[in-house]
Amino acid sequence: MTRRPTPEPPRPGQESVWDYPRPPRLETFAGSITVELGGEVIASTRTGFRVLETSHPPTYYLPAEAFSDGVLRPAAGSSWCEWKGAASYFDLVSATAVAPRAAWTYLSPTSGFEALAGAVAVMAAAVDRCTVNGETVVPQPGGFYGGWITSWVVGPFKGIPGSNGW
Where do the DUF427 domain residues begin and end (predicted)? Predict the structure, then answer.
């Protein structure tokens, strides 16, 4: 049996991912978000959403119009989230780089997540850089999850070795 890890205590101004709910919570985000690929900013916004789930750093969703023209190329395949429903994928394309299946959206999300319809999340590890309020994010460990780690979020985070049963 896998033991629940010991949460890191948050300092003032920080959030613990162990205080996030399960099922996850959707909240609006008002702040600066950028995504860079191939040495250029391919997405930029001052509004979006965060999905907050126990043990996961926030997953940020940007409005589709935050992406430069031609950057979102539909990709084959889909996946299923027990909370949000069926996800569709995009390759991210810049003038000099392609990040295959590096972004996803929920075209018809389930109840409680309707506001996410058409908004796009990005796998930070697949692009050059993502920022939140000017801070470069660290991708959620493990290569499967899409959370973005910033200095104001503490873990430990789902995706590290041994976290499979959390």
Answer: 33-124
pTM of model > 0.90: yes
Type of residue at 154: V
Mean pLDDT of the 133-144 span: 96
In a domain, 100, yes or no: no
Looking at residue 94, its amino acid is S
**Mean of pLDDT values over 103-117:** 98
- What is the extent of the structural domain holding 144? 15-68+112-154
